[in-house]
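Supplementary notes for students who missed Thursday's class. We covered one full example, reproduced here. Read the sequence, then the structure, then the short commentary at the end.
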Amino acid sequence: MKQRKIILSVTICLAILTMLKAQVFIQGGAQIDFTGSTFISIENGDFINNGIFNAGTNSTVIFTGSNTDAHIGGNQVSRFIDLKIDKPNRTVFLDQDIAIHFDIIFSEGFLDLNGHDIDLGSLAVLANEVENSRVIGPAGGEIISTVNLNAPVNRNPGGLGLFITSTENLGLTTVRRGHVPVTSGNSTSIQRYYTIMPNNNTGLDATLHFRYFDAELNNIPEAELELWHNTGADWEPLGFSARSDAQNFVEQSGIDHFTTWTLTNQANALPVEWLAFQAFLQDDNRVLLEWKTAHEQNNAGFEIERRMPVGTAWSKLGFVPAATGDYQFLDDKPLPGMNFYRLKQQDKDGTFSFSPIVSVQVHATVTPLYVYPNPALDEINIQLPDDAMSITLYDNLGRLLLTQTVYEESLIRLNINQLPSGAYWLLVQKNDGFEQVKWLK
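Structure (token representation):
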């Protein structure tokens, strides 16, 4: 099928889509739908989504031009089928989380996470990453891939550059890649880490093959790189069984379980001052954080940060000044679901380091989002959160099926008799963000 190519270089004003000086701007309440094989080239412009973007099943959005950097933003999460970066010596910045169905294809230029996440799901991959065209993220953010791993052999989830081998069934496994180095004073790692979270995480006897780029070395001698992992209380070196400066990898075998991994050398031994950091759910649904340090020097105190699993940045909850080495902090208002916490230890000279990450499941104290029956045949019931504003229904390819404003309803019934069998996603917009649930027919 012949592709339609739209070069956005003039000002076009439409009811559902506004293009200003090569900028794609989807207004609030507006909608754009791609059908068939669609190809859009955005030359020296941004993609801003404040409405509804339905990428169809076979579309590509490509960023081109070397005059200016570009941004992907707006107040809605955009879901792309294919995304291509072709901006010589320029960068595309994320100002919002995005999701990808198939590929992110690199030709020239960088894609900066800018503190946001890219959800690759189970199918999408990073394609053609090289030194001068790849994902970067000095301000934080992660690329996330979730796949089933049953006795994997050199599986590279999402093309993230982490190859996993094990004779065991790891089950559903989430791999997160970030580019902020682990730092504490003068100790540091390379500008890349991976967090691996399998359903089965014991007795794996796994081999881990960790790839990196020269630009991520962070002034650490390449010939001295070793694998380090987070034990939950500190960082521990695991050495290497193979490594190559020419091919940019470090590998280790005989790994029993997975955590968070990075590369550094013995001269940059990562911080081991954390004796313990734990989170406890209290009877009143508050979360108590407790931590201990082995020794402190020049310590100003600890900033407490929290985030949800996917799609949110770390937020500051409070600050505890340096004291005796035994500390507590009470989170009075945790969010329903899995809450993740970390400590930002701040020195008096302005340097800082992060603690290991801990998590706790918080039970909902308000009406939760719930779809039943699941799986369903002819009808689904949607129990809505108290602050629900609208619902949007997508199929598993990201195609928009329904959007509906919510007024004072607490329960909505939808007739799904005409929908084909398969997986579907319900996205609920609330006062403080979004919540989604997957259901099957």
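Commentary. Confidence is low (pLDDT under 50) at residues 1-21. The radius of gyration is 23 Å. If anything here is unclear, bring it to office hours.
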